[in-house]
Amino acid sequence: MKLLITGGAGFIGSNFIRYWLEHYQDEIINFDALTYAGNLENLKEFETDLRYSFVKGDICDREAVFEAVKNIDVVVHFAAESHVDRSIMDPSAFIKTNVLGMQTVLDAVKEYKKRIHHISTDEVFGALKPDDAPFTEKTPYDPRSPYSASKAASDHLVRAYYHTYGIEMTISNCSNNYGPYMFPEKIIPLFISNLMEGKKVPVYGDGQQVRDWIHVLDHARGIDMILKHGRIGETYCLGGDAEMANLDLTKSLLKLMDKDESYIEYVTDRPGHDRRYAIDFSKAKNELGWEPQIKFEEGLKEMIEWYRENQEWVSRCKSGEYQEYYEKQYVSR
Ligand code: NAD
Ligand code: DAU
After folding, report:
1. How do residues 9-58 score in pLDDT, each as one tens digit?
2. In which element (H, E) is residue 286 found?
3. Average pLDDT, whole number, for the chain?
4. For position 332, what pLDDT does the model report?
5. pTM of the model
6. What is the DSSP string of 99-112?
7. Which domains does the chain possess?
8. Which of 6, 12, 183, 296 to mutate to test the pocket of ligand 1 (most atoms within 8 A of CB)?
9. Fewer C-beta neighbours within 10 Å, C or N terminus of the chain?
10. From the alpha carbon of 246, which atom of ligand 2 is closest?
């Protein structure tokens, strides 16, 4: 099998590629525009692996996308703008990549009759109250940030292409991922790296917003099982069974990193901040036999260890040096 991974230089995409190459002999093409979130250093151990190749390309570039999709079997579509705070500051790139880019990828999938698995988020379902039942595949869409609205649009487009043109598709809506190679702008890697540098951690509002944390490798295994056993046309919710308020998460991080609560800095809340996400993954469990395996406490400890052992990776992310890697390793060689 030949897989085209869009957004494979990002956090989840690069973990998925590593997972796949460690488990299977398939050929993988990583198609990524290398925005600020794309870091090819994440995959440098595979540069000489004949099963792996990289194409620098934008999913909005029709010619490049059609060329890439023509000769593969399956598209696993991760490429997106993914950070909520950036979408609040400027939604444009989110609409361009997550909606128009999605359309381009779908047009190519339709043209060459390929299968696509679309990676989506639980944020499309909106926000839960403390006693509400978790999201399921049947929860009505209610996106509330420019990011989640753009992801909701992408999900609708994938389903529209299935119903209208009969493309072979599946979708997964996953909760908050954590793990190695996570760009230090999202809460867990930002807080770990701040604490490593002796800086305070900015908790938004009252810190009582709840997220459900899933290890990125549990997510990768879920996508694998959907690709192998998922029913075409279906959506699967994937979650980590680890609901936690941000303040509790912050306190756990402080404890694991031997810091006291004076390192907490309460800052102005995110506008439109969703109060709670939670996932009921019964469908994936019953149909695919999937459930998360990595306990949050263990995964978090390992993640902190990974950041401690890879401080150079973290500082290159923070300084922007990682963005010179493609030029040095791929272009001027
Ligand atoms: P990320 O921001 O770390 O990586 C995104 C990748 O896409 C980067 O490598 C970037 O260069 C690439 N990209 C962006 N725009 C592109 C374009 N126009 N053309 C080609 N490549 C482009 O994101 P992530 O956290 O790894 O998330 C990956 C996917 O999973 C996204 O679709 C996101 O919505 C979804 N998701 C993320 C989470 C999470 O917790 N991070 C949870 C559920 C779903
Ligand atoms: O639920 C899945 C989503 O999880 C994905 O679709 C998104 O791509 C991913 O970015 C993530 O979105 P969140 O907004 O939940 O993640 P983030 O790490 O930005 O924020 C997590 C929570 O922590 C949220 O309630 C806001 C809060 N927060 C975040 C940051 C960056 C803080 O309190 N302080 C911070 O500095």
Report:
1. 999 999 999 999 999 999 999 999 999 999 999 999 999 999 999 999 99
2. helix 282-288
3. 98
4. 82
5. 0.98
6. IIIHHHHHHHHHHH
7. 2-331 (3.40.50.720)
8. 12
9. C
10. 23
